[in-house]
Amino acid sequence: MSKISIQDMELYYGDFQAIKGISMEIPENKITAFIGPSGCGKSTVIKSLNRMNDLVEGCRITGNILLDGVDIYKEMDPIVLRKRVGMVFQKPNPFPMSVYDNIAFGPRTHGVKNKAQLDEIVERSLRQAAIWDEVKDRLKKSALGLSGGQQQRLCIARAMAVEPEVLLMDEPTSALDPISTNKIEELASDLKKDFTIVMVTHNMQQAARISDKTAFFLLGDVIEYNDTDELFSNPQDKRTEDYITGRFG
Amino acid sequence: MIKTKDRHPMSMFLNICMKIAIIFTVGILAFLIGYILIMGIPNISPELFAWEFTTDNQSMMPAIINTLIMTLLTLVIALPFGIGAAIYLVEYARQSSPIVKIVRITAETLSGVPSIVFGLFGFLMFGIAFGWNYSLMSGAMTLAIMVLPVIMRTTEEALLGVPDSYREASFGLGAGKLRTIFRITLPSAMPGIIAGVILSIGRIVGETAALLFTAGTVASIPSSVFDSTRTLAVHLYALLNEGLYMEQAYATAVVLMVVVILINWLSNRIAKKLAK
């Protein structure tokens, strides 16, 4: 069954139409990758899935986006939605506070006050994000002292601490070195047991390596959406083929 | 090691210019502080710190206490308005809206108005129209209006300097607007806000013209906020004006400087505590 269902979604920034009527079904407990050249709308779509576009002045959306069959724009409070659909951003963006407080911010926001419970959530989230061993001795130190790759895994842990069902990742490895990238990719493959993951990536090898489904975006439209193996080995559309063989983009 | 300045005459010249500029800037400050200390310290005597002011002792103790009360009262009035307005402008108002532009222009204009004009306004508004006469309250309200644009502008700059990625991360975790502002944005902006507060304190402590008309010059500790008072700077002005007490004036200047440094240090400490 599909976790998220996008139906005839159009999106405008002021008068500019950024997304031209797309529909897709995103399956549960799978990694779905969005690929495509810069400015094709893939980040815009992923940001609509937890309504981060609400923050953009003049942004307007038509059509429906359903999470477990419930319309997230018409029938759901954004705060509830964002608790269920977490997000990891392109650049690591830890808060300027301690490692512990970074992770505890989400649970505290949603009313967890008990110290023992918070301790447990922090440890579990950091373990899930495979960074526990590296930070367990410096939980009280500033998160800004971590390396870029560690910061990004911290941000993943922070997103997981509120126990979301879906994890959106907007080019999570574009600012990282190959070793950190590798770690994040392994992590994503691990996490799909428990989460539905949607990932935007510029890197086609990355999409091919870790995703189950891939959508190819071009100029605000989904050109092709299929199982990753199928899309990369046997693209149906000429434009998809040109893109994945590196003829443009 | 070869340095560029050793090889290019122009680099050498600019290097020397730069050093002269540094020496000049630091030199003026050092001379000023040194001069006041040398002239003032020998004149500091215990009787200058007597609790009661008399024409004999010219004690500055009441003035010191009044300065602290005046500073605190002014900040208590001005901070909520200044910070609140800045939060509205940065976090709530549409950036393209004309209100934002009008408020910014108003604040900038307000910060360029000479303090004597504020003094006259305060005298007419708070002293006469409100019937508060010469009082601590009239003075504090006048000073609050004076420092309001400073606090607002610096807080605004500080809030604008907080990366949007912090806000996104907070919203992304399901935090609401208020929680994001109070837990993430304001703490991150705290150093900038404190810089504004320190600037304001400098203006409050150093102000004379606006206070002569509003708080008056009575040199004793007021029993209520509606009594007339004199701050250290006004006290210094009064001593100089009378021309009879130059030694005491120098001593007062030393204390005024120390008070300013102390207040700055203290606000820095508080800022660091708050930022945690």
Walk me through the structure:
Chain A: Keywords: ATP-binding, Nucleotide-binding, Transport. Chain A: One of its GO terms (molecular function) is ATP binding. Chain A: InterPro entries: AAA+_ATPase (IPR003593), ABC_transporter-like_ATP-bd (IPR003439), ABC_transporter-like_CS (IPR017871), P-loop_NTPase (IPR027417), PstB-like (IPR005670). Chain A: Pfam families: ABC_tran. Chain A: This is Phosphate ABC transporter ATP-binding protein. The complex is a heterodimer of chains A (249) and B (276). Chain A is an alpha/beta fold and 249 residues long. Chain A has a domain of 174 residues: 3-Layer(aba) Sandwich (Rossmann fold). Chain A is built from 10 helices and 10 strands. Chain A has a 6-stranded mixed β-sheet, sandwiched between helices. In chain A, a hairpin with a 2-residue loop joins strand 1 and strand 2. The two termini of chain A are 33 Å apart. Chain B is mainly α and 276 residues long. Chain B has 2 domains: 40 residues; 230 residues, MetI-like fold. Chain B contains 11 helices and no strands. In chain B, helix 3 packs across helix 10 and helix 8 packs antiparallel against helix 11. The longest helix of chain B is centred in the first third of the chain and has 32 residues. Chain B is globular. Chain B starts with a helix and ends with a helix. The mean pLDDT of chain B is 88. At the A-B interface, helix 2, helix 3 and helix 6 of A face helix 7 and helix 8 of B.
Q: What's this, in brief?
A:
Chain A is an alpha/beta fold. Chain A is built from ten helices and ten strands.
Descriptors:
heterodimer; A: 249 residues; alpha/beta; Rossmann fold; six-stranded mixed sheet; four-stranded antiparallel sheet; 10 helices; globular; B: 276 residues; mainly alpha; MetI-like fold; 2 domains
Topology, pairings included?
The complex is a heterodimer of chains A (249) and B (276).
Chain A: E1 2-13, E2 16-27, E3 31-35, H1 42-48, E4 59-67, E5 70-71, H2 78-84, E6 85-88, H3 99-109, H4 115-128, H5 132-135, H6 148-160, E7 166-170, H7 178-191, E8 196-200, H8 204-210, E9 213-218, E10 221-227, H9 228-233, H10 238-244
Parallel strand pairs in A: 3-8, 3-9, 6-7, 7-8
Antiparallel strand pairs in A: 1-2, 1-4, 4-5, 9-10
Helix pairs in contact in A: 3-4, 3-6, 4-6, 6-7
Chain B: H1 4-7, H2 9-40, H3 61-92, H4 98-112, H5 115-129, H6 136-160, H7 164-172, H8 177-206, H9 209-212, H10 232-242, H11 246-275
